[in-house]
Amino acid sequence: MSQLASRRIVLGVSGGIAAYKSVELCRQLVDLGAHVVPVMTADAHRFIGPVTLSALASEPVHTSLWDDASAIPHTQLGQTADIIVVAPATARVLSAYATGSSEDLLTATLIATRAPVVVCPAMHTEMWEHPAVQSNIEILRSRGVHIVEPETGRLAGGDIGAGRLASTEKICAEIIRVLGMSHDLLGLDIVVTAGGTREPIDAVRVIANRSSGKQGYAIATIAAQRGAHVTLITTVDRVVPSGVTQVQVETAQQMKDAVDAAALSADVVIMAAAVADFRPVVCADQKLKKADGVPNIVLEPTPDILAGLGQRKPLGQTLVGFAAETDSLVAHATAKLSAKCLDLIVANDVSAEGVGFGHDTNAVVLLSPHMPAMTVALADKHAIAHAVLDSVVKVRHQQQESK
Ligand code: PMT
């Protein structure tokens, strides 16, 4: 059992009742061969004594920005860690990390590292479900932080609900997974699109759709984590994922111009955006007046960005489309795969519960002439992103074989 041999893990413990479980986690990580460096917040001391963690970890507990032997302990801890794990992470620590405030050794270490970070929240259900906490989780996730969600079960007050720290086994499995995650996209130039285009009707009105950009952002985030150089062309204004170059656009034509330029040197293009199929022929300079009656808005087709890329695809480029369908998912997606000369299409049935527009989750079928069809059941959009990128790797391998 030495899956974590010679791995240096900074184990951050913050002040919640679940702090006692960090002792078991610490022991398990040491048993798996890791060198565990414990860091406790002042509040964590109210729940467990530092001596307990010091006795089980690989070195004594670090607690303060000022008391440590090193002059700048947070950068030393952050720079030497292979991974940082925060278990339990309280609402306060999540907030400090999301806003970048470095008020104590743990939060300063979190923002002074380039190592991957696994955060394991634990708190009462009401706190966990509060929009402020959920928004901090979303911010951290979009920056590539790995979240091990709390479980549902008996909480400190005896009540039952979501918020209990994930099991030691689950946290260890995530640490092993993250550390083992290869940089298999290193050196690849990947263009990803996200969000729905907005086609102007007049000075204030647009034709839009329900795309939130979550799926495209998840793909950009994971692709960057796996080593790719990522350009994200987006119509939505979300937090820019770490290491990603973002280009903001609004209309289908602007998206086409940006994608066409970026695609010239791209190894992979992934069109997750929901591009309008039609736009008004004329955009009125002024706001159309209600008093003038119902306007007659004449529409024309927008350029099909993906089909254009398919027609002039350079050798070695991998072109990935999405298909948003409400019926005959595989049949319609297969038709788009061949009509647009794609290497891979990600088909989602957007009429199904939790799938597609606006949700944090998605469920897809991956279709390609280069590999057998693959179904990915309902999962977080970041997990779907991993599946899409795994397929990109397979498809590129096949493309290179058949050169
Ligand atoms: O953004 P979220 O809220 O996370 O939702 C994700 C999603 C539902 C938007 C995403 O999973 C998805 O399905 N994106 C594609 C939506 C779409 O426009 O599908 P389509 O079947 O109409 O188009 C097929 C493909 O052609 C798409 O890759 C699309 O980007 C592309 N296209 C479409 C029209 C056009 N004029 N130019 C294009 O390039």
CATH C-level class of the largest domain: Alpha Beta
Largest sheet: 8 strands, mixed
Q: What is the total number of structural domains?
A: 2
Count of strand segments = 19
Spatial separation of the terminal alpha carbons: 42 Å
Question: Could you explain how this protein is built, in words?
Answer:
The protein is α/β, with parallel strands linked by helices and 403 residues long. The chain folds into two domains: 8-180, Rossmann fold (3-Layer(aba) Sandwich); 189-401, CoaB-like (Rossmann fold), CATH 3.40.50. Helices cover 33% and strands 24% of the residues. The protein is built from 13 helices and 19 strands. The strands form five sheets. An eight-stranded mixed beta sheet has the order 12-11-8-13-16-17-18-19, sandwiched between helices. Strand 6 and strand 7 form a beta hairpin. It is globular, with a radius of gyration of 24 Å. The relative contact order is 0.08. The model has no long low-confidence stretch (mean pLDDT 94). It binds ligand PMT.
